[in-house]
Amino acid sequence: MPTPALLDAYAGVRPATTPVWFMRQAGRSLPEYRASRAGTEMLDACLTPELAAEITLQPVRRHGVDAAIFFSDIVVPLKLAGVGVEIVPGRGPVLDRPVRDAADLADLVAHDLDDDALAPIEQAVARTVEQLGDVPLIGFAGAPFTLASYVVEGGPSKDHLRARTLMQADPEAWRTLTAWLARVSGAFLAAQVRAGARAVQLFDSWAGALSEADYRASALPASAEVLAAVPAGVPKVHFGTGTALLLPAMRDAGADVVGVDHRLPLDAADRLLGGGVPLQGNVDPALLDAPWPVLRAHLERVVEAGRAAPAHVLNLGHGVPPTADPGVLTRIVEWAHTGA
Ligand code: CP3
Question: Of 21, 64, 120, 250, which one is least surrounded by beta carbons within 10 A?
Answer without folding.
Answer: 64
